[in-house]
Amino acid sequence: MKTVYSPLHHRRTATSELDGGVLIEPHERPSRAETILQRVRDQSLGEIVAPVNFDLAPILRVHTLEYVSFLEHCWSEWAAAGKPGEAIPQFWPARGMRQRVPKDIDGRLGYYALGADTSITDGTWEAARASVDVALTAQRLVADGERAAFALCRPPGHHAAADLFGGYCFFNNAAIAAQAFLDQGAKRVAILDVDFHHGNGTQSIFYRRNDVLTISLHGDPDLVFPHFLGFEDEIGEGDGEGSNLNLVYPPGTPFSEWRQGLETACKRIADFRPDALVVPLGVDTFEGDPISFFKLTSEDYLAMGERLGRMGLPTLFTMEGGYDVEAIGVNVANVLTGFDQLA
Ligand SMILES: NCCCCCC(=O)NO
Ligand SMILES: [Zn+2]
């Protein structure tokens, strides 16, 4: 399987993440991508491909122009306002307030943010754009006939909604790639999010549509981020009713439980008969992950990949979460190896 990678992910080198009331070194750090890349090379999983540069058009098929413009100019506006630290949202259009975009950068940050965990810094825009290029280049490889491709995206994307950033995400790489499949003639695309966290952005982008089936297996939002979406009664709306499936699991969930959800998801996908499968691949389901509570082992990722391979669908993997940097390379490579076993 080919891997698409861009060194421009290094432009996303935030120094602060608000966590537990203090600013910590962000969990979403450059060493994650470098460790995965090294393992892909060590395991000779396939060619490493540089991304093609795309313009904003594919992004604007998913995200609003106002939001994209905000992301492009946020850092310079923040710096021009003389703020000493990284751009971190502090004020939100909370319940009972006006849902309008103010002029002031503090107001604009809060309007477009789903949380205060994700700072915007010099270089964030460039890295986020490059991450989309990585996803779209891998998507094109699959559309052109590759059985599968791995988009080593950083920053990740599945929490980003049409005009919302957070959870370390800015552009929804998987949603942009799924839309590209459709714009290139696919009739139906399935998105199966295996990250520990609910893919709230992906769900909301396609929630009222029936040409994209969105499925997510994740930790109970009553107990973990993103807190306010991802429950099992969210099945889609309007034309999209029945096109969203959330499978929610408690703390301590082992692969033996999790894989039953995977089976349910695979059956739903088979019934949907998609032309392509997009897998937002987070490995924060790992037993050693510092911010999550499932108990998957490194070996389990081989079985996960193998099951996904048995779907027999053109498949695009987009890198999402996973914060045990020591284990992330093995865990990601194991999914891809398991998938490739059937090639
Ligand atoms: N800082 C709150 C948790 C952010 C989760 C990021 C992630 O891994 N999403 O999949
Ligand atoms: Zn995650």
UniProtKB/TrEMBL annotation:
Its cofactor is Zn(2+). This is Histone deacetylase family protein. Belongs to the histone deacetylase family. InterPro entries: HDACs, His_deacetylse_dom, His_deacetylse_dom_sf, Ureohydrolase_dom_sf. It holds the Pfam family Hist_deacetyl. Residues 28-337 form the Histone deacetylase domain. It comes from the Bacteria. Keywords: Hydrolase, Metal-binding, Zinc.
